């Protein structure tokens, strides 16, 4: 891609790459790392004609690990669709966007808040049941390990 002066690399991350959650330390670490890798690679390739984007889905209904786990979210915590993720991927590539979050406003706002005030965001998340959600996700994914 660099040799021909065009192309695009897209990394599929998760909002867990912007906001840590209980019970998912390894998952969070990989997603945070992927975010840093994509950001640094984007900077390295800035003048090469090769774009780099990272997409950060939240809870996705009808497909993927959240849907397969069958977890019930608290009121006000919404989901996005697989089609929303597909649209985000196209937008990232076509517009050469560094990062694209794929989640309802409340979930995106929570991830942004966690980046600004992680300890307070963690306290709020625990009150909303994040520890129970993590346990349910783990139980719902246990057969995949």
Write a short abstract of this structure.
By secondary structure, this protein is an alpha/beta fold.
CATH architect. name: 3-Layer(aba) Sandwich
Number of discrete domains: 1
Structural class label: alpha/beta
Poorly predicted parts: none
Query: Which overall shape is indicated by the principal axes computed on the Cα atoms?
Result: globular
In terms of DSSP E residues, the strand content is 5-15%
The CATH topology annotation reads as: Rossmann fold
Count of discrete alpha- or pi-helical segments spanning 4 or more residues: 6
* CATH-level-4 superfamily name: NAD(P)-binding Rossmann-like Domain
Strand numbers in spatial order across the main sheet: 1-2-3
CA radius of gyration is 16 Å
N-to-C span: 36 Å
Helix content: 40-55%
Mean pLDDT: 91
What would CATH call the class? Answer: Alpha Beta
Biggest pleated-sheet summary: 3 strands, parallel
How many beta-strand segments?
Answer: 3
Give the SSE order as H and E letters: EHEHHEHHH
Give structural notes.
The chain has 145 residues and is of the alpha/beta class. 51% of the residues lie in helices and 12% in strands. The chain has six helices and three strands. A three-stranded parallel beta sheet has the order 1-2-3. Helix 4 packs across helix 5. The longest helix has 21 residues.
